[in-house]
Design goal:
Strands 1-2-3-4-5-6 form a six-stranded mixed beta sheet, with helices on both faces. It folds into two domains: 167 residues, tt1808, chain A (Alpha-Beta Complex); 147 residues, no CATH class. By secondary structure, the chain is α+β, with helices and mostly antiparallel strands. 39% of the residues lie in helices and 19% in strands. It is globular.
Length: 370
């Protein structure tokens, strides 16, 4: 990990100067991508480890084919330094290269931002994005270098050999598919499911239509209230105002507003956190989607706010940092830092494992503010 962190520090020093130079693809590769791949354990000078200009079935080539036991396991396609990496044609191209070659994983990068796709996923090319990570200080000012390095290390040579990406991909994409299936089953339950539930209940007085309505009610999210956003200068002691939604500008926000364009992992992180917060007290926890974050309140007291980034979640809790016992490195004191949301403690969450660890702090915030 030290080698990756050191590499990030060196590349950051070069970033501003070369960005102004409008660096093209080839120099972006030599100045930014090659050194990072080396730090991740990929020897770009050894064609048995990383084959450059790997030929594809259409007669073209992919910039890097990283190999394990001389077999490609990861394709990396490079773009110029200032490329936004949003061109659907470019995304479709690299995903297609990987899928046609039987390579599970591929990356589209401008040397600073790395977007990781699972080529075999049954979805449109953009929706195959598992996660993305950037070391641009402007995009990651609230992230420790250790956290960025951990994300990059997911496609290191050692991690690929151990199947780390396979494990994360299976976890995230499968969870999404199961969630979608449950959505369909609960909102429009088939007769067989209703029969099974009635049989398990053992009460013939409960009619099929009642079971159907109950399933929908249980699966539907808890009722929401409109929470007035807290300005960056406010502190956790500032009490949020509960206002009628009609008093706002009229623009409505929802899950799609916050998840649009986000990697699949970030979406699943948010949905898992959402479920956890609401289940702390299904009858009294209320939620509202705001412009910059999603707020969770017990009656009228916000205990958790979450902002979705491309690299993960930023979660704010109403806790006193000084009272936390040995807080982990992804937790920081922001009592004197301007931020969205409500709370003096910020959590940087970029994996389901980290979210699992953070649940105790979220629960603590709930209990102290309920």
């Amino acid at each position: 990990m030290k080698a990756i962190i050191s590499c990030i520090e060196e590349l950051r020093l070069k970033l501003d100067r070369h960005r102004k130079d409008d660096l093209k693809e080839y120099p972006t590769r030599t100045i930014f991508i090659d050194p990072l791949l080396q730090a991740l354990g990929w020897d770009v000078r050894d064609p048995d480890d990383v084959q450059l200009e790997y030929p594809t079935i259409d007669g073209k080539s992919v910039d890097y084919a990283s190999k394990i036991n001389r077999k490609p396991v990861l394709f990396v396609e490079a773009k110029s330094l200032n490329d936004p990496l949003t061109d659907v044609k470019a995304i479709t191209q690299v995903v297609g290269y990987a899928a046609n070659a039987g390579v599970e994983w591929c990356i589209l990068t401008n040397g600073v931002n790395y977007k990781v796709y699972r080529s075999t996923e049954k979805a449109s090319a953009p929706d195959k994005l598992l996660f993305e990570v950037s070391f641009d200080p402007k995009e990651t000012e609230d992230m420790a270098l250790q956290q960025i390095a951990e994300q990059l290390a997911r496609f290191s040579r050692d991690a690929m050999a151990k199947g780390v990406l396979d494990e994360i991909g299976e976890q995230i994409f499968t969870t999404g598919k199961v969630r979608k299936a449950l959505d369909k089953l609960f909102m429009d339950p088939p007769t067989t499911l209703i029969r099974t539930i009635r049989s398990a209940i053992g009460d013939d007085s409960i009619k099929p239509v009642q079971v159907k309505v109950a399933l929908k009610r249980l699966w539907t999210q808890t009722s929401e209230v409109e929470v007035h956003p807290i300005s960056a200068g406010d502190t956790a002691s500032t009490k949020p105002k509960i206002v009628d939604a009609k008093l706002r500008s009229g623009k409505e926000y929802g899950e799609e507003f916050h998840t649009k364009g986000k990697p699949r992992e970030v979406t699943e992180l948010f949905r898992t956190l959402d479920k956890f917060c609401r289940e702390l007290d299904p009858n009294n926890v209320q939620k509202r989607y705001l412009a910059k974050y999603v707020a969770y309140a017990y009656v009228k007291s916000i205990f958790c706010s979450v902002h979705l980034l491309k690299s993960g979640l930023r979660v704010w809790l109403k806790l006193d940092y000084a009272r936390l016992e040995n807080p982990p490195d992804y937790v920081r004191d922001i009592s004197n830092v301007g931020h969205w949301g409500v709370g003096d403690v910020e959590l940087a969450i970029n994996s389901l494992e980290r979210l699992q660890e953070a649940k105790s702090l979220i629960r603590q915030s709930f209990e102290e503010n309920s």
